[in-house]
Amino acid sequence: MTSAGAMVKEGKYMSPLSEDTRRLAREELREDEAIRENALEHMKKWAEDNPRIETCRTDPCFLLRFLRAKKFSLPMAQEAMERYLLLRQTYNYAFNNLDCLLPNMDYLFSEGYLFAAPGRDKDGRRWIIARPGVFDPHKYTNADMCRIHGITYETLMEDEESQVRGFVHYGDGAGVSFPHLTLFTPKEAVRIVKNGERTLPMRHKEVWGINVHPSIKYA
């Protein structure tokens, strides 16, 4: 099981969280300085000693993705990290070469296929906007679709405020047609949705959709 990057040695962690976000982390995630320091130490040693992990980031920001997503339950965070690394290995085309300047990625970002809305809502959350109708299924592949999601999510997961505050997903299905629905087999589509919900270390707070294709409503 592998992930991009090597084992990273870090000094003492300094929290970049605002005071309000630290309070929220204490209330919702049971995170305080002592719990965080102890959990980071155990997670790092576990990752370095785990024979199933060949290379992996062990810097605090990366490890905190899993600890915060699982409310500092070490067994659950460790399981989530292994599942995430396996996901990256299984869908390597979505997580390798995450370059937003690749021609296909640059075009899709410019068209507004997927992006994070500027700023945060009243609860401090980032909104991720998806407009699948602008994705041309005759020109681009499901690998392109997976890669642009990989670029977006990996970038957003690096932000520690968002690790605590979480994300809201908003989709506009205008323009979606049958060819869009055949980019993935039903089995692949179910697996991708489940992985997005359960395996990516993100706190999914809400999901909103408009102009939803009829076939999706009853899926």
Automatic annotation (TrEMBL):
InterPro entries: CRAL-TRIO_dom, CRAL-TRIO_dom_sf, CRAL/TRIO_N_dom, CRAL/TRIO_N_dom_sf. GO terms for cellular component: membrane. One of its GO terms (molecular function) is phosphatidylinositol bisphosphate binding. It comes from the Eukaryota. Pfam families: CRAL_TRIO. Residues 59-84 form the CRAL/TRIO N-terminal domain. Transmembrane segments: none annotated. This is CRAL/TRIO N-terminal domain-containing protein. It comes from Homalodisca liturata.
